Amino acid sequence: MQKAIENLVAATLTEDIGQEDLTTNTIVPPELRCLARLYAKQDGVLSGMKPFRAAFDLMDADVRDWNSLTDGTPFKKGDLIVSFEGKTQAVLTAERTAMNFVQHLSGVATLTSKFVRSVEGLECRICGTRKTMPMMRQLEKAAIVHGGGANHRHTLFNGVLIKENHVMAAGSIREAIRRAWEGTHHLMRIGAEVENLDQFDEALEAGADVILMDNMSNEDMREAVGRAAGHKVILEASGNASLERIRSMAETGVHFISVGALTHSAPSIDLTLLIENAAP
Q1: Looking at residue 104, what DSSP letter applies?
Q2: Can you state the percent helix, strand and coil of the chain, rounding each to 5?
Q3: Are residues 59 and 169 in the same domain?
Q4: What are the beta bridge partners of residue 87?
Q5: pLDDT at position 107, please?
Q6: Angle at 118 (CA atoms; ends 258, 142), nearest 5 degrees
Q7: Residues with catalytic roles
Q8: What is the domain range of residue 53?
Q9: How far apart are CA 28 and CA 47, in angstroms?
Q10: Is the domain of 152 the same as that of 233?
């Protein structure tokens, strides 16, 4: 994964720099070194240290005396998150790219931690979805884990999840599940998305391993949990999973709640990188 991170960071550096960092190269002597410190301007949970560090290494910042919190660590406003020494030109040129990664990913981890805390004490896990930023999936999925959450499929190849458009193409949930069983193997789980109790019963009778209840009411989900008693099936809820509603959803007895907002709507965490000239 490290090589993939370096390739992604290299592409974002190229996007940001263009031909050169005109401001830094004009003002800052190439021999100058600095002490850099990353501080939190609000509370949060850390994620994104690998791409953050990679941005400076790819710019040949000659990083020394690196000291940082680890991903998954909660922090408070004013906390020192990272400190290091490096070449000033490289640090300033890589700064925005490095910050974009750590601020966004820490935002994902922080929002995830809020959802996870909301269901404490219940047998229910919060998981992310494939609603991720292009080319950022692996990092965002890792940030969800840093925030205490779990993960859904990473790719379409990871498993079968029959959704409403697949059902339309196949003709019915039962037929879609039958085709999935015939087209895969006995080690592969088959998941099916349902929108009401009739579809739930159909998926349950057809032998789905996982049933995802999409935008169903808490009352219907509670009824579905009861109907699934005695069946070896994983139950997942999705849709309208807000912080205000998440605990009541978990209290229905579902095993997982998938929350697309963890990645598509997480606000970035406010951090600041400050430098001072290093001693000669």
Answers
A1: H
A2: 45, 20, 35
A3: no
A4: 33
A5: 98
A6: 50
A7: 96, 131, 163, 193, 214
A8: 2-115+266-277
A9: 30
A10: yes
